[in-house]
Amino acid sequence: MIQETNATKIRLVNCSKTFEDGTHALNPINLEIKGGETVVLLGPSGCGKTTTLRMIAGLESPDAGGQIFFGDEDVTQKPIEQRNVGMVFQSYALFPNMSVRQNIAYGMKIRKTPKNKLDHRVDEMLNMMRIDELQHRMIDQLSGGQRQRVALARAIATRPRVLLLDEPLTALDAFLRENLRVEIDQLLRQLGITAVYVTHDQGEAMALGDRIVVMDHGDVAQVGTPRDIYFKPCNAFVADFIGTVNRLSGLVADGWLTVTGGTLSFAGKNGKAEVLFRPEEARVCPISEANLVGNVETSYFLGDRTKILIKNISDDLIIIETSGREQYEKGESIGIFVQSENLILAHSQGDN
Amino acid sequence: MLIAQITDTHIKSPGRLSYGKVDTCLYLWQCVNHINALLPRPDVVLVTGDITDFGRQEEYVQAGLLFEQLAMPYFLIPGNHDLSDEMRVEFNDHSYMPSHGFIQYVIEDFPIRMIGLDTTVSGQPYGLMCKERLNWLEKQLMSQPNKPTLLFMHHPPFKTGIEHMDVQNCRNADALGRLVEHHPQIKYVLCGHVHRQIEIAWHGTLCAIGPSPAHAVALDLSPKGDSAFRLEPRAIKLLYWNGTDLIGHLSFIGGYEGPYPFFDNDGLLIE
Hints:
The complex is a heterodimer of chains A (about 350) and B (about 270).
Chain A: E1 10-18, E2 24-33, E3 38-42, H1 49-57, E4 67-70, E5 73-74, E6 85-89, H2 100-110, H3 115-128, H4 144-157, E7 162-166, H5 174-191, E8 194-199, H6 202-208, E9 211-216, E10 219-224, H7 226-231, H8 236-241, E11 246-253, E12 256-259, E13 262-265, E14 271-277, E15 282-285, E16 292-301, E17 305-311, E18 318-323, E19 333-338, E20 344-348
Parallel strand pairs in A: 3-8, 3-9, 6-7, 7-8
Antiparallel strand pairs in A: 1-2, 1-4, 4-5, 9-10, 11-12, 11-14, 12-13, 14-20, 15-19, 16-17, 16-19, 17-18
Helix pairs in contact in A: 2-3, 2-4, 3-4
Chain B: E1 2-6, H1 24-37, E2 44-48, H2 57-67, E3 74-77, H3 84-90, E4 105-107, E5 113-116, E6 127-128, H4 131-143, E7 149-152, H5 163-166, E8 170-171, H6 173-181, E9 186-191, E10 198-202, E11 205-209, E12 216-217, E13 229-230, E14 235-241, E15 246-252
Parallel strand pairs in B: 1-2, 2-3, 5-7, 6-8, 7-9, 9-11
Antiparallel strand pairs in B: 1-14, 4-5, 10-11, 12-13, 14-15
Helix pairs in contact in B: 1-2, 2-3
């Protein structure tokens, strides 16, 4: 749990957004972000995450009735330049006709920061982002990773109250992304700044967020710590979006769920149901002890573990992992035991 | 900066051994663990082709599951046993890989520039640097003539003395050699394909082949030597960039005795 700091709290009250062309981007959301906390807005494109971020930035205003607070201050009517936020975008948005140094200095320059203070701060930023040796380069001489470092330096140079990051790593290749993600994480901890981070990448969200806000079609689907979201997803959308999940479709009758591959005790309403479980909630066992039986489709060697894909248990392949290295023949019968108490209900007849 | 090479892993479909003998999945896993455990840890891994044995999709899935366990970035180019399309499907999050055509690219963002070359010819065991690929390479080299550069490719552009491998080396190698001569920023040309540590002074630079973490091609320099492999001590090549030079090392995979000290507590050589 994050410690409350002096950093700026953010509060969204009843914020919805309908664009002028009638597009409804966001249903009313209420969200509190603690001072110094990193909150990740996660979801597929069109879920409303970027709209939410842009409202916090002051680039969009919420529909009438919505309010945004920074600490106790109502900033709903304030434009971006009066909110003191730092922003980093996927597209870098750096000035191509300026050097790295000039880019970083830009925000302070328009705030008329005295020269000696400005130079000192720019040096500090160059140092912090480890781009000292690039300071006189022009932006088009930089790689993607270097550009994003410059963008980060520029965003924090003015000591913003809040740092907003919109898919800052999306344009980078997978490896650079991983490296820079670690750096951003360290940077946010070091600065203790309140940060809102938008991404569609669950790995990034899990790694960076103190809390994750999973969004779906303009609604908040779930807010929670990465652990909560993974182990206690509130619905099938969240479970599917984060991590690997297995899906069983069948019939519930008197506390038992029956699928093609067997029967599990399951306390749900009678009728059709779809339930989910994580690969780690199941283990391979002798068929006589199994609650589900299927046939091996294929298996992969992971070193200390083997990943097995099983068909004929339910409509979808079931994926599980087992320790050690067993050889499984394609088609061979295999029994698994799934812990019933960890099943996640996705749908039941009562729901739809 | 430290670069590790993994080459010629020949991953098979799950549960199969290469040539009925070599457990290439196990060997790759041990290799990945070996690299992750090195101190200092390599900054990057270059995978120089023959990732799979038959280019099958499930072989790539299996290979991907093991490569994913590397603790550092890794970059792949194809060898003659690979199929580019299947490779792209499995590694579709490797955005440096062009979405079509040759799988060749430049890796910036490291103190040394690394250029991966695609030497494959569809359906053929030999390699080729055709005009199109050479032109591309020349363009890349001209764009940063002063930055130290490493080339990596699957087929070696020279003859090793192992005849059955030499007939399938990289063709049009002279043209590549002339291009390399004109670009002294090239510090090293790193290859695979032959499953052995082999090197040559080549067109003003060093060209070397690294060993496979699985089986080795048998060392047989006799004319018309048989095509065969041996299970020799498994190793990987490490390239250490000290800021001016690239220095090649071998690192053997597996448990070996030591380290033992040379000197006793008084600083004297142990008798």
